[in-house]
Design brief:
binds uridine-diphosphate-N-acetylglucosamine, seven-stranded parallel β-sheet, single chain, about 40% helix, alpha/beta, 11 helices, about 15% strand, globular, about 325 residues, three-stranded mixed β-sheet
């Protein structure tokens, strides 16, 4: 049995479906702070399974203990997705971010310690490479230079906590998955990303322009040192990312200690590549204007994805056209 905190969120919900389809048993703990019951229903429709679910705050240790105690089959592994993730908001409300992201993790670790559960998979981020002086592709042992915002620092701190836990307990295993830029949606159109308010990230912004909710895309700078001057990122289909977690759940059975693994495709695309791919895949024009650079953005960020391939026997399979088609299908079905 695998526990998913934040299992009805964007990445959590896709991972839950892939785990169930691979034959794993799961239980979900989520407070619906960035999702809702409808997502859970859709996950059940997709898999044809009833999913054990607890609407709890993961900071609440008493409620969390009950999740571990209630299960007929013991929980062997936890995938910790639950966390706040809006970069801009984290700059404005740092205390809220540190409190939530650190407290959920610490409560979880304390309860796991008590219940003798020793497998932890963590949703980390490529944002940890954001201040690096090095050049893409980034490997996991890129020298640590810290982060540019509180959201990133929470990921940095939690990685450190997990490293320390692994030193203290040689039986403990922590796999820290550094995501690059997940986009796309489930091909059924039933699951995807639902940002609150005006989206900060590129693909949700594009789909909202496509459907007419937003007037045009603003491209943040075209004077970067990249082939067309716009920022280059490693966009990965969320279902591929979900499958990376399934592989990590297998890997962690035999593994002890702390391991950091990039989940990306290893290929970089520019903002304009994405705009043109979306236009071509879906036959819709996306009007855009070039505006000033966005503070904190880097020119180029993509993964060296070879460690995931080596350790997890996993690689991303879906191409940019599929990412664009699936993102658009979901937006239309919202
Ligand atoms: C952002 C976060 C990163 C986080 C990730 C989660 C920042 C600085 N970084 O990554 O920490 O882990 O989301 O998904 O917020 N762009 C536009 N116009 C837009 C939106 C984006 O031109 O309206 C450009 C950006 O300048 C960038 C690219 O599109 O070059 C991707 O941006 P975004 O989707 O926000 O992701 P990241 O900034 O890479």
């Amino acid at each position: 049995m695998i526990l998913l905190t934040g299992g009805t969120g964007y990445i959590g919900s896709h991972t839950a479906v892939e785990l169930l389809q691979s034959g794993e048993e799961i239980v979900i703990a989520d407070d619906f702070s960035n999702s809702n019951e409808e997502v859970l229903k859709r996950m059940e429709t997709l898999t044809g399974k009833k999913i054990p679910f607890y609407q709890i705050d993961v900071k609440d240790k008493k409620a969390l203990k009950k999740v571990f105690e209630d299960q007929a089959e013991p929980i062997r592994c936890v995938i910790h997705f639950a966390g706040f993730k809006a970069v801009g908001e984290s700059v404005k409300e740092p205390v809220k971010y540190y409190r939530n992201n650190l407290d959920t993790t610490l409560s979880l670790l304390e309860v796991m310690q008590e219940k003798q559960v020793k497998q932890f998979i963590f949703s980390s981020s490529a944002t940890l490479y954001g201040k690096s002086k090095g050049k893409a592709p980034f490997t996991e042992d890129e020298p640590d230079t810290g982060c540019t915002n509180p959201y990133g620092w929470t990921k940095w701190m939690i990685e450190q906590i997990l490293q320390d836990v692994c030193v203290a307990d040689p039986e403990f295993s922590a796999v820290m998955l550094r995501y690059f830029n997940p986009i796309g949606a489930h091909e059924s159109g039933l699951l995807g990303e639902r940002p609150n308010g005006i989206p900060n990230n590129l693909m949700p912004y594009i789909t909202q322009v496509a459907i007419g909710k937003l007037d045009h895309l603003r491209v943040f700078g075209d004077d970067y040192d990249t082939p067309d001057g716009t920022g280059v990122r490693d966009y990965i289909h969320v279902v591929d990312l979900a499958k990376g977690h399934v592989a990590a759940c297998d890997y962690i059975k035999e593994h002890k200690g702390a391991e950091v693994i990039n989940l990306g495709t290893g290929v970089g695309y520019s903002v304009l590549d994405i705009v043109h791919a979306f236009e071509e895949a879906n036959g819709i024009r996306i009007p855009y204007e070039i505006v000033e650079r966005r503070a904190g953005d880097v020119a180029t960020m993509y993964a060296d994805a070879s460690k995931a391939r080596r350790l997890l026997d996993w690689k991303a399979e879906k191409d940019l056209t599929q990412m664009c088609r699936d993102s658009w299908r979901f937006e239309q079905m919202l």
